[in-house]
Specification:
Blueprint: E1 4-9, E2 13-18, E3 21-23, E4 29-32, E5 36-38, E6 44-49, H1 51-61, H2 68-86, E7 94-102, E8 107-114, E9 121-124, E10 128-132, H3 143-164, E11 174-181, E12 184-192
Antiparallel strand pairs: 1-2, 1-10, 2-11, 3-4, 5-6, 6-7, 7-8, 8-9, 11-12
Length: about 190
């Protein structure tokens, strides 16, 4: 499982936060990795669910010069067969997120595309916070320390769920932050979850 949190500021930029833990389908930690890429056009691509689909999509777009709007349109066409080739007989779902500047919407956005709806895009246009997996936490984080505290709270919630669902894959490792603005891209580690 991947933890992904985002904060959209339509005129200023978008912040994306992901964990780094890599584990087996049985939940055994096997290492850490960066779970996002940033293209040459300052579009961040991350995802949750079936890692093979997400990694293949990221690999195909690492050096991409496509805009966010072009990537989202391409994803709607290319992700269904890609996902089917990665998981031909499995019910595993994948959700891909694209974050950055949209020329169509004339603002920073997030686009969510899930195999559950054939990767049709849903755009996040309003300012606000998004979190996957869902959390029961009632507070909105403030600054880096707030996002790190929220990530730790979600990790605790997921660990409790794992007790009743042994197939649930944990989140953990370090919390990475990507800040995309008109001025550029900043990437950094905020610390261990």
């Amino acid at each position: 499982m991947t933890l992904i949190m985002w904060a959209i500021y339509p005129n200023e930029g978008v912040e994306i936060y992901t964990d780094t833990l890599v584990s087996t389908e049985g939940g055994e930690a096997v290492g850490e990795t960066q779970k996002y890429i940033v293209t040459a056009t300052k579009v961040a691509i991350a995802g949750t669910g079936g890692a093979d689909t997400i990694e293949a999509w990221q690999a195909a777009n690492t050096g991409s010069l496509a805009s966010l709007d072009e990537l989202v349109a391409d994803a709607e066409l290319q992700l269904p067969p890609l996902h089917d080739s990665c998981y031909p007989t499995s019910a595993i779902s994948s959700t891909v997120f694209h974050f950055g500047w949209s020329n169509v919407h004339r603002q920073f956005v997030g686009a969510v595309q899930s195999s559950k709806n054939q990767f049709a895009p849903t755009f996040r246009l309003r300012p606000g916070l998004g979190i996957r997996p869902d959390t029961r936490s009632p507070f909105a984080p403030d600054g880096d320390a707030g996002f790190l505290a929220l990530a730790r709270q979600i990790q605790l919630e997921q660990n409790l769920r794992s007790n009743s669902d042994p197939d649930r894959v944990p989140i953990g490792g370090r919390l990475m932050m990507i800040d995309i603005t008109t001025g550029g891209v900043l990437e950094r580690s905020l610390g261990p979850i």
